[in-house]
Amino acid sequence: MQVRAEQLAAQLGKGGPNGLRPIYTLHGDEALLVQEAADAVRQAARAAGHTERQVHTVMGTHFDWSSLVGAASEMSLFGDRQLIEIRIPSGKPGKDGSQALQRYCEQAAGNDGIVTLVTLPRLDKTQLSSAWFTALDGLGVSVRCDPIERQALPLWIAQRLKAQGQQVEPGEAGQRTLAFFADRVEGNLLAAHQEIVKLGLLHPPGLLTQADIEDAVVDVARFNVFKLSEALLSGNVARTLRMIDGLQAEGEAPNLVLWALADDIQGLWRTRQAMDAGKPLALALREQRVWGAKERLFERLLPRLKAAPLARLVASASTVDGIVKGLPHPQWPTDPWEALRRLALQLCELAAAPP
After folding, report:
1. How far lies 329's CA from each of 21, 253, 312, 320, in Å?
2. 307-324 vs 336-352: helix axis angle to the nearest 10?
3. 84: helix, coil or strand?
4. pTM (predicted TM-score)
């Protein structure tokens, strides 16, 4: 059974003779949410009498799976209930591991004295439909711990503040405050949590003003070049420039940022060409391998974009490619990052233009 991270607290204590499900599987790349979910399971297990703990970390191809399978059927040496943790950092147990995990689930299903906590990184569609994951999910609870996206971050911050008895001003002023907070911590959820805890230490329960938050919250945002597309294709100039500034400050290579920009520009150009040749938008997007969130942004933009301005953007991207490689252009900045900013602004302007 799959639940969201915020639903785990309500789920703990339901089902099973000791109030817990036999297996809890946590998967995802958001370290804070994985840590909090794991701590919640450990706390609930201790409260239910699972005082003996084993930890098995699967590293490399030589892990002894037989010891893990045996642990599911063994009784504690001291008669205590056990919490068995299985950590698979690669997310790929392999053929032997897949079979062992399925056997482990069969053994654990009949052992009331064991609760199992499995931690995994982000899993792809194939892994989520694998026999070993299906066995884990079928016997217990699986929790997906994905990063909090920028648009959901203000609400997440507000909920965390509320949990410690604090809130921002109502209405538009509060929304501006939460947006400011989110801009400062985007891409760094652990630091966001720390900043929220710090506000709880600095200020008593009750109302927090924007001045309170501006004075206390440190700029700890971390940006991922693969998230740049969302800002670019939304026409969000302020966020785009903030992300590029952050990537430069973090030492990201300018050619990687150019790759992200050029990939969006080329994708728009090629899809527009396919549409002009008579192909439906959906088919053209599939041929260009445009999926997920980017697909939705392309669907919004392409019906109103013309080939000529997209061709000019392609030419600009080629110019910036030369600048990044050390070939100056008389009409462009010689600094690669300044050239990237100009190219990004051109794409933002096109994306933000009215229909």
Report:
1. 64, 20, 15, 9
2. 170
3. strand
4. 0.69
- SS3 of residue 86 by DSSP: strand
| Residue where a domain terminates, one of 125, 144, 163 | 144
Q: Using an 8 Å Cβ cutoff, are 257 and 229 in contact?
A: no
Instruction: Tell me the residue range of the domain where 169 lies.
Output: 150-216
CB atoms within 10 A of CB 125: 7
Question: How far, rounded to the nearest angstrom, does the alpha carbon of residue 338 sit from its chain's CA centroid?
Answer: 29
pLDDT in tens, 113-129: 889 999 999 999 999 99
Task: Give me the amino acid identity at 339.
Answer: A
What is the distance between the alpha carbons of residues 131 and 154, in angstroms, rounded to a whole number? Answer: 38
Q: What is the pLDDT of residue 17?
A: 47
What is the count of structural domains for the chain? 3
- On the CB side of 297, how many CA atoms lie within 13 Å of its CA? 23
C-beta of residue 28 within 8 angstroms of C-beta of residue 146: yes
Instruction: Read off the DSSP letter of residue 224.
Output: -
